[in-house]
Amino acid sequence: MWDSLLINARLATMVEGKAPYGAVESGALGIANGRIAWLGSLDDLTARPGALAKKIYDLDGRWVTPGLIDCHTHLVYGGDRAGEFEQRLGGASYAEIAKAGGGIISTVKATREADADSLFAASLPRLQALMAEGVTTVEIKSGYGLEPEQEIKQLSVARRLGETQPVTVHKTFLGAHAVPPEYKDGRNGGAEAYIQSMIALLPRLKQEQLADSVDAFCETIAFDADQVARLFEAAAAEGLPVRLHADQLSDGGGAALAARFKALSAEHLEYANEHGIKAMAKAGTVAVLLPGAFYTLKDETAPPVAAFRKAGVEMAVATDCNPGSSPVSSLLSVLNMACILFGLTPEEALSGATRIAAKALGLADSHGTLEIGKVADLVVWDIERPAELAYRLGFNPLNLVIRGGKRLQPTPKASLQACTTGDP
Ligand code: DI6
Ligand code: FE
To answer: Which atom of ligand 1 is nearest to the CA of 103?
Structure first.
């Protein structure tokens, strides 16, 4: 007996190579022990639904997708940067503000000043906004502490969010996000000494399970390729996978660097070059596209989507939720931006927030598609076709969320129509 069974469902399985969206019309999906136990056409059920499962959800033709995955966020931070938003509207650039001591460093100040409880309280509404749109897995980076205990505070808050909320949190250590004031302009040994202090932290992060992966910002205003390479070598020695903020503001050879270390993903990539793209394809490194940052910074160079397609680099799509370059807590809006601004198809965008996002987090075996054996994280939507998830801006057609086989209560919308019955 399964725990539950969804009937009269249209399943966007997101499995590659089948029908668009991996769709199964008139579908059914059985769940047992938090995993997908069966899925297929309703006609292929071997008995009447009530004989197969304890609880039946009649979805009345609604679409079901895998739980959405936001594979790149910086959502744990203190303060805000609305003042900087005004400065940028007045003509200042992101890099200029950063060089003048604003930007990431101003969020570092606010984050350091916040204790763990207030950081948790400030971050929770951002996470809840994502979850209200069907996000069941989220990556959260550190990188606003830039000092060992402060980075640990941020990662601990990320962990606590995952322990207290019905969402899977992947924690990424981004100590190499910016050079903190203590090491700026050669102070205390400069960027070199700072990177060394972050490398020294890795064994503890690994031991205390505070990080699932390691990230860095490779950019003229952040760290150079040699410094990143040293960090990545140390991460590999700890058995921690890596990812990289690469080629966001300029071509720094970030794509090739990420590929050289078999990174799970390289992110932003607006200025990625041909050589880097080929190397990513060979290494199986996912390109994480972040249209929220492109939009907010009014960037004019879009990432080379056509070249990624041609080379066979898989593209994920994520919010980059952060207070500076992407104050965005809506993954559905980002799906729309990925289509409008970067030219993705709605199917590519949705794949980028499900199957490919799972791969970017090293979770391809357990998450990201509707397949037998995978974790039963799924979302039921009030839509007529999957493209609607990327079509609208500012409208949330979510009907219900099932995570790890359990229906989340309360569902974000009260207007649930899908009926649940016992043995019909
Ligand atoms: N690139 C980004 O877009 C974020 N970090 C990064 O390396 C921005 C973070 C911020 O501005 O606070
Ligand atoms: Fe980012």
So the answer is: 11
Q: Does the residue 416 lie in any domain?
A: no
> Residue 171 pairs with which residues in a beta bridge?
140
d(CA 349, CA 87): 32
Residue 72 C-alpha to ligand 2 middle, in angstroms?
6
3-state secondary structure of 409: coil
Task: Please indicate, yes or no, whether residues 202 and 279 belong to a single structural domain of this protein.
Answer: yes
Same domain, yes or no: 388 and 331: no
Q: Ligand 1: which of 322, 326, 334 to mutate, most ligand atoms within 8 Å of CB?
A: 322
0.90 surpassed by pTM: yes
Tell whether 140 and 108 lie within a shared domain.
yes
pLDDT, one tens digit per residue, over 392-409 is: 999 999 999 999 999 997
Handedness of CA 356, 359, 365, 366 (dihedral sign): negative
CB of 294 sitting under 6 A from ligand 1: no
145-182: pLDDT as tens digits: 999 999 999 999 999 999 999 999 999 999 999 999 99
Q: Is 63 in the pocket of ligand 1 (CB under 6 A)?
A: no
Domain co-membership, 6 together with 24 = yes
Residue 391's CATH number: 2.30.40.10
Q: Position 188: which residue type?
A: N
